[in-house]
Protein backbone atom coordinates (compact mmCIF):
# COMPACT_ATOMS: atom_id res chain seq x y z
CA UNK A 1 0.00 0.00 0.00
CA UNK A 2 2.83 2.29 0.86
CA UNK A 3 4.36 1.87 -2.61
CA UNK A 4 1.03 2.64 -4.35
CA UNK A 5 0.55 5.73 -2.16
CA UNK A 6 4.06 6.86 -2.96
CA UNK A 7 3.47 6.38 -6.70
CA UNK A 8 0.20 8.32 -6.65
CA UNK A 9 1.73 11.12 -4.62
CA UNK A 10 4.66 11.30 -7.00
CA UNK A 11 2.35 11.51 -10.03
CA UNK A 12 0.28 14.25 -8.39
CA UNK A 13 3.39 16.26 -7.55
CA UNK A 14 4.73 15.83 -11.08
CA UNK A 15 1.39 17.02 -12.48
CA UNK A 16 1.44 20.10 -10.28
CA UNK A 17 5.05 20.83 -11.25
CA UNK A 18 4.28 20.38 -14.95
CA UNK A 19 1.27 22.71 -14.67
CA UNK A 20 3.38 25.30 -12.86
CA UNK A 21 5.95 25.18 -15.65
CA UNK A 22 3.34 25.67 -18.41
CA UNK A 23 3.54 29.36 -19.47
CA UNK A 24 0.34 31.34 -19.12
CA UNK A 25 -1.36 32.38 -22.34
CA UNK A 26 -0.16 35.79 -23.50
CA UNK A 27 -2.60 38.67 -23.47
CA UNK A 28 -2.35 41.61 -25.82
CA UNK A 29 -3.67 43.77 -22.99
CA UNK A 30 -0.36 43.04 -21.29
CA UNK A 31 1.61 46.03 -22.61
CA UNK A 32 5.07 44.42 -22.57
CA UNK A 33 3.71 41.35 -24.37
CA UNK A 34 1.91 43.54 -26.93
CA UNK A 35 5.02 45.64 -27.52
CA UNK A 36 7.18 42.56 -28.08
CA UNK A 37 4.61 41.10 -30.48
CA UNK A 38 4.22 44.32 -32.47
CA UNK A 39 7.96 44.83 -32.72
CA UNK A 40 8.05 41.46 -34.47
CA UNK A 41 5.03 42.21 -36.69
CA UNK A 42 6.24 45.67 -37.75
CA UNK A 43 9.97 44.80 -37.88
CA UNK A 44 10.77 47.54 -35.37
CA UNK A 45 14.41 47.68 -34.27
CA UNK A 46 15.19 47.89 -30.55
CA UNK A 47 16.57 51.41 -31.02
CA UNK A 48 13.06 52.78 -31.60
CA UNK A 49 10.92 53.57 -28.59
CA UNK A 50 7.37 52.15 -28.58
CA UNK A 51 4.64 53.69 -26.42
CA UNK A 52 1.58 51.51 -25.74
CA UNK A 53 -1.51 53.49 -24.73
CA UNK A 54 -4.42 52.43 -22.55
CA UNK A 55 -7.35 50.52 -24.11
CA UNK A 56 -10.28 52.71 -25.21
CA UNK A 57 -13.84 51.55 -25.98
CA UNK A 58 -14.96 51.46 -29.63
CA UNK A 59 -18.02 50.58 -31.71
CA UNK A 60 -16.20 47.37 -32.64
CA UNK A 61 -18.06 44.97 -30.35
CA UNK A 62 -15.77 42.86 -28.20
CA UNK A 63 -12.67 44.95 -29.01
CA UNK A 64 -10.91 47.95 -27.49
CA UNK A 65 -8.70 50.37 -29.39
CA UNK A 66 -5.11 50.40 -28.17
CA UNK A 67 -3.13 53.39 -29.49
CA UNK A 68 0.52 52.70 -30.29
CA UNK A 69 3.20 55.33 -30.95
CA UNK A 70 6.58 54.58 -32.48
CA UNK A 71 9.18 57.28 -31.85
CA UNK A 72 11.43 57.56 -34.92
CA UNK A 73 14.16 60.04 -35.90
CA UNK A 74 11.67 61.62 -38.30
CA UNK A 75 8.91 62.03 -35.74
CA UNK A 76 6.25 59.98 -34.00
CA UNK A 77 4.36 57.40 -36.04
CA UNK A 78 0.92 56.51 -34.71
CA UNK A 79 -0.51 53.04 -35.31
CA UNK A 80 -4.04 51.83 -34.65
CA UNK A 81 -4.82 48.39 -33.27
CA UNK A 82 -7.95 46.78 -31.91
CA UNK A 83 -7.55 44.17 -29.18
CA UNK A 84 -10.20 41.67 -28.10
CA UNK A 85 -11.51 41.95 -24.54
CA UNK A 86 -9.73 38.74 -23.56
CA UNK A 87 -6.51 40.06 -25.06
CA UNK A 88 -6.03 37.14 -27.44
CA UNK A 89 -6.78 38.74 -30.82
CA UNK A 90 -5.32 41.82 -32.49
CA UNK A 91 -6.79 43.64 -35.50
CA UNK A 92 -4.94 46.36 -37.39
CA UNK A 93 -6.96 48.72 -39.53
CA UNK A 94 -9.66 51.37 -39.64
CA UNK A 95 -13.33 50.93 -38.78
CA UNK A 96 -16.04 52.54 -40.89
CA UNK A 97 -19.72 53.07 -40.14
CA UNK A 98 -21.48 53.15 -43.53
CA UNK A 99 -24.12 55.51 -42.13
CA UNK A 100 -21.54 58.15 -41.27
CA UNK A 101 -18.87 60.20 -43.00
CA UNK A 102 -15.90 57.80 -43.35
CA UNK A 103 -13.56 60.55 -42.17
CA UNK A 104 -15.69 61.91 -39.33
CA UNK A 105 -13.20 60.77 -36.65
CA UNK A 106 -10.53 62.87 -38.35
CA UNK A 107 -12.87 65.85 -38.76
CA UNK A 108 -13.73 65.66 -35.06
CA UNK A 109 -10.06 66.03 -34.15
CA UNK A 110 -9.23 68.86 -36.54
CA UNK A 111 -9.48 72.35 -35.04
CA UNK A 112 -9.35 75.33 -37.38
CA UNK A 113 -10.36 78.30 -35.24
CA UNK A 114 -7.78 81.10 -35.18
CA UNK A 115 -5.58 79.33 -37.73
CA UNK A 116 -3.99 80.89 -40.83
CA UNK A 117 -6.27 80.25 -43.81
CA UNK A 118 -7.21 81.33 -47.31
CA UNK A 119 -10.11 80.56 -49.60
CA UNK A 120 -13.87 80.73 -49.39
CA UNK A 121 -15.48 80.35 -45.93
CA UNK A 122 -18.09 77.59 -46.02
CA UNK A 123 -16.50 76.03 -49.12
CA UNK A 124 -17.46 72.43 -49.98
CA UNK A 125 -13.85 71.35 -49.51
CA UNK A 126 -11.72 72.08 -46.46
CA UNK A 127 -8.01 71.32 -46.62
CA UNK A 128 -5.97 71.29 -43.41
CA UNK A 129 -2.23 71.19 -44.07
CA UNK A 130 0.29 69.97 -41.47
CA UNK A 131 3.64 71.32 -42.59
CA UNK A 132 7.26 72.01 -41.60
CA UNK A 133 9.07 75.15 -42.78
CA UNK A 134 12.41 73.33 -43.12
CA UNK A 135 10.96 70.36 -45.03
CA UNK A 136 11.87 70.30 -48.77
CA UNK A 137 8.75 68.30 -49.67
CA UNK A 138 6.62 70.83 -47.80
CA UNK A 139 8.21 73.57 -49.88
CA UNK A 140 7.07 71.82 -53.07
CA UNK A 141 3.56 71.20 -51.72
CA UNK A 142 3.31 74.84 -50.62
CA UNK A 143 3.90 75.91 -54.23
CA UNK A 144 1.09 73.63 -55.39
CA UNK A 145 -1.33 75.02 -52.83
CA UNK A 146 -0.49 78.65 -53.47
CA UNK A 147 -0.03 78.57 -57.25
CA UNK A 148 -2.84 76.20 -58.17
CA UNK A 149 -5.37 75.61 -55.38
CA UNK A 150 -5.74 79.27 -54.43
CA UNK A 151 -5.94 80.43 -58.04
CA UNK A 152 -8.19 77.73 -59.51
CA UNK A 153 -10.42 76.83 -56.56
CA UNK A 154 -10.63 80.02 -54.49
CA UNK A 155 -14.44 79.74 -54.31
CA UNK A 156 -14.56 75.99 -53.63
CA UNK A 157 -11.75 75.31 -51.17
CA UNK A 158 -10.77 76.67 -47.76
CA UNK A 159 -7.15 75.93 -46.79
CA UNK A 160 -5.88 75.99 -43.19
CA UNK A 161 -2.23 75.81 -42.12
CA UNK A 162 -0.97 73.77 -39.16
CA UNK A 163 2.58 73.59 -37.82
CA UNK A 164 4.15 70.15 -37.49
CA UNK A 165 7.92 70.69 -37.18
CA UNK A 166 10.00 67.48 -37.24
CA UNK A 167 12.55 68.61 -34.67
CA UNK A 168 14.89 65.63 -34.79
CA UNK A 169 15.20 65.94 -38.57
CA UNK A 170 14.92 69.72 -39.03
CA UNK A 171 16.68 71.64 -36.23
CA UNK A 172 15.29 75.13 -36.99
CA UNK A 173 11.78 74.09 -38.02
CA UNK A 174 10.18 74.63 -34.60
CA UNK A 175 11.78 78.06 -34.20
CA UNK A 176 10.46 79.00 -37.65
CA UNK A 177 7.00 77.74 -36.72
CA UNK A 178 7.02 79.88 -33.56
CA UNK A 179 8.18 82.89 -35.57
CA UNK A 180 5.35 82.34 -38.04
CA UNK A 181 2.88 82.28 -35.18
CA UNK A 182 4.35 85.53 -33.89
CA UNK A 183 3.74 87.09 -37.30
CA UNK A 184 0.18 85.75 -37.30
CA UNK A 185 -0.41 87.20 -33.83
CA UNK A 186 0.73 90.65 -34.91
CA UNK A 187 -0.90 90.74 -38.33
CA UNK A 188 -2.86 87.66 -39.50
CA UNK A 189 -2.90 88.80 -43.14
CA UNK A 190 0.92 88.86 -43.18
CA UNK A 191 1.23 85.18 -42.32
CA UNK A 192 0.90 83.99 -45.92
CA UNK A 193 3.58 86.46 -47.02
CA UNK A 194 5.81 84.92 -44.34
CA UNK A 195 4.80 81.41 -45.47
CA UNK A 196 5.73 82.12 -49.09
CA UNK A 197 8.93 83.98 -48.18
CA UNK A 198 10.36 81.35 -45.81
CA UNK A 199 9.76 78.51 -48.26
CA UNK A 200 11.30 80.52 -51.09
CA UNK A 201 14.40 81.26 -49.01
CA UNK A 202 14.51 77.90 -47.22
CA UNK A 203 18.00 76.93 -48.53
CA UNK A 204 19.50 80.17 -47.19
CA UNK A 205 18.13 79.85 -43.65
CA UNK A 206 19.84 78.26 -40.66
CA UNK A 207 19.21 78.13 -36.95
CA UNK A 208 21.83 80.84 -36.46
CA UNK A 209 20.43 83.39 -38.94
CA UNK A 210 16.70 82.63 -38.71
CA UNK A 211 15.74 85.53 -36.44
CA UNK A 212 17.88 88.04 -38.35
CA UNK A 213 16.33 87.05 -41.66
CA UNK A 214 12.77 87.06 -40.24
CA UNK A 215 13.26 90.55 -38.81
CA UNK A 216 14.74 91.72 -42.11
CA UNK A 217 11.70 90.37 -43.96
CA UNK A 218 9.34 91.97 -41.40
CA UNK A 219 10.89 95.39 -42.01
CA UNK A 220 9.86 95.19 -45.67
CA UNK A 221 6.27 94.48 -44.58
CA UNK A 222 6.05 97.38 -42.12
CA UNK A 223 5.57 95.08 -39.15
CA UNK A 224 6.51 96.10 -35.61
CA UNK A 225 9.94 94.45 -35.53
CA UNK A 226 10.53 95.23 -31.84
CA UNK A 227 7.31 93.49 -30.87
CA UNK A 228 8.04 90.63 -33.25
CA UNK A 229 11.57 90.23 -31.88
CA UNK A 230 10.28 90.08 -28.30
CA UNK A 231 7.73 87.44 -29.30
CA UNK A 232 10.49 85.35 -30.89
CA UNK A 233 12.95 85.79 -28.00
CA UNK A 234 10.42 84.86 -25.30
CA UNK A 235 9.08 81.88 -27.28
CA UNK A 236 5.63 83.31 -26.67
CA UNK A 237 4.02 81.04 -29.26
CA UNK A 238 5.75 77.77 -28.32
CA UNK A 239 2.66 76.29 -26.66
CA UNK A 240 0.61 77.06 -29.77
CA UNK A 241 3.03 75.09 -31.92
CA UNK A 242 3.17 72.22 -29.44
CA UNK A 243 -0.63 72.11 -29.43
CA UNK A 244 -0.64 71.76 -33.22
CA UNK A 245 1.93 68.95 -33.01
CA UNK A 246 -0.18 67.13 -30.41
CA UNK A 247 -3.23 67.47 -32.67
CA UNK A 248 -1.26 66.05 -35.57
CA UNK A 249 -0.12 63.07 -33.53
CA UNK A 250 -3.70 62.39 -32.43
CA UNK A 251 -4.51 62.28 -36.16
CA UNK A 252 -1.64 59.83 -36.76
CA UNK A 253 0.44 62.37 -38.67
CA UNK A 254 3.97 60.99 -38.81
CA UNK A 255 5.53 63.01 -41.64
CA UNK A 256 5.15 66.22 -43.60
CA UNK A 257 3.43 67.42 -45.57
CA UNK A 258 0.18 65.74 -44.54
CA UNK A 259 -3.03 67.21 -45.93
CA UNK A 260 -6.51 66.38 -44.68
CA UNK A 261 -8.93 66.97 -47.55
CA UNK A 262 -12.42 66.90 -46.01
CA UNK A 263 -10.85 64.68 -43.37
CA UNK A 264 -9.17 62.31 -45.85
CA UNK A 265 -5.42 62.06 -45.06
CA UNK A 266 -3.05 62.61 -47.99
CA UNK A 267 0.65 62.20 -47.20
CA UNK A 268 3.72 63.47 -48.98
CA UNK A 269 4.18 66.06 -51.70
CA UNK A 270 1.36 65.37 -54.16
CA UNK A 271 1.84 66.57 -57.75
CA UNK A 272 -0.75 69.09 -58.92
CA UNK A 273 -2.19 66.79 -61.60
CA UNK A 274 -2.90 64.11 -58.97
CA UNK A 275 -4.23 66.53 -56.37
CA UNK A 276 -6.47 68.18 -59.00
CA UNK A 277 -8.04 64.80 -59.78
CA UNK A 278 -8.69 64.16 -56.07
CA UNK A 279 -10.29 67.60 -55.71
CA UNK A 280 -12.52 67.03 -58.75
CA UNK A 281 -13.68 63.66 -57.40
CA UNK A 282 -14.42 65.13 -53.99
CA UNK A 283 -16.41 68.01 -55.51
CA UNK A 284 -18.35 65.54 -57.64
CA UNK A 285 -19.07 63.34 -54.63
CA UNK A 286 -20.19 66.30 -52.51
CA UNK A 287 -22.59 67.41 -55.24
CA UNK A 288 -23.95 63.87 -55.72
CA UNK A 289 -24.52 63.48 -51.99
CA UNK A 290 -26.22 66.88 -51.84
CA UNK A 291 -28.48 66.06 -54.78
CA UNK A 292 -29.44 62.80 -53.09
CA UNK A 293 -30.36 64.66 -49.92
CA UNK A 294 -27.60 63.02 -47.89
CA UNK A 295 -26.32 64.79 -44.82
CA UNK A 296 -23.91 62.13 -43.66
CA UNK A 297 -20.95 63.56 -45.48
CA UNK A 298 -21.13 67.30 -44.92
CA UNK A 299 -17.84 68.89 -43.93
CA UNK A 300 -18.03 70.04 -40.34
CA UNK A 301 -14.98 70.88 -38.25
CA UNK A 302 -15.65 71.55 -34.53
CA UNK A 303 -15.07 75.04 -33.23
CA UNK A 304 -12.97 75.89 -30.17
CA UNK A 305 -14.79 79.19 -29.77
CA UNK A 306 -17.81 79.47 -27.46
CA UNK A 307 -21.19 79.33 -29.20
CA UNK A 308 -22.87 82.68 -29.78
CA UNK A 309 -25.93 83.28 -27.62
What does this entry look like structurally?
With 309 residues, the protein is of the alpha+beta class. 43% of the residues lie in helices and 17% in strands. The strands form two sheets. Strands 1, 2, 3, 4 and 5 form a five-stranded antiparallel beta sheet that branches. Strand 7, helix 4 and strand 8 form a beta-alpha-beta unit.
Average pLDDT value?
85
Main beta sheet:
5 strands, antiparallel
Number of strands: 10
> What general form does the structure show?
globular
Ranges with pLDDT <50 over ≥5 residues? 1-22, 304-309
Residue share in helices? 40-55%
List SSEs in N-to-C order. Answer: HHEEEEEHEEHEHHHHHEEH
Cα-based radius of gyration, to the nearest Å = 26 Å
- Number of separate helices: 10
Given the helix and strand composition, which structural class is it? alpha+beta
Instruction: Note the beta-strand portion.
Output: 15-25%
Distance between the termini: 91 Å
